[in-house]
Design goal:
Radius of gyration: 15 Å
Largest sheet: 5 strands, mixed
Oligomer: single chain
Shape: globular
Strand content: 5-15%
Number of strands: 7
Number of helices: 5
Structural class: alpha/beta
Helix content: 25-40%
Distance between the termini: 16 Å
Length: about 150
């Protein structure tokens, strides 16, 4: 299983008239698109992690624009709550002890560790990157070469 972040730029920024769209089309930022291309190339199953909707399969509907972030400084009323994330994780049927690859920043590791009750090894191939540009470069090179990133267990 691979988890990719949703991202702030969304399709409604350029096409506000659109209604609900599939999750795989909703997020338009460069980093998200690279993560999605990487997941499509190297993962059998992948989910988008949204601070508003939680875990989304690529075909799930996103109803419209939102501006919600995961924060480490407490919870925002519009941010999905931990209990709901845990319930969604169970519904998605990810087996305990199945490795989970996380593409994204460091903030996702403690979040996923909590969601999975530390039952899944978390692989973080982008850890150690020097910022978003470095992460994007690593993803581009992996996609172009057909060689997945090395996975580091946290």
């Amino acid at each position: 299983m691979m988890i990719i972040p949703s991202g702030k730029p969304k399709i409604w920024d350029k096409s506000p008239e659109l209604g609900a769209v599939r999750a795989k089309k909703a997020y338009t930022g460069t980093f998200h698109k690279l993560c999605q291309a990487y997941a499509e190339k190297f993962a059998d199953d992948w989910l988008i992690l949204s601070p508003s909707y939680g875990f989304l399969k690529p075909e799930d509907l996103v109803l419209g624009p939102y501006d919600v972030r995961f924060t480490l400084k407490g919870t925002n009323a519009s941010t999905i709550q931990m209990e709901e994330l845990k319930a969604q994780w169970q519904e998605k049927g990810v087996e305990a002890f199945e490795p989970v690859t996380i593409l994204g920043g460091k903030k996702f590791t403690p979040l996923l560790s909590q969601v999975t009750d530390q039952k899944n090894p978390l692989l973080t191939p982008l850890n150690g990157s020097k910022g978003i540009g470095d992460m994007q470069g690593k993803l581009k090179r992996a996609i172009q070469s057909g060689q997945p990133l090395s996975h580091f267990a946290d």
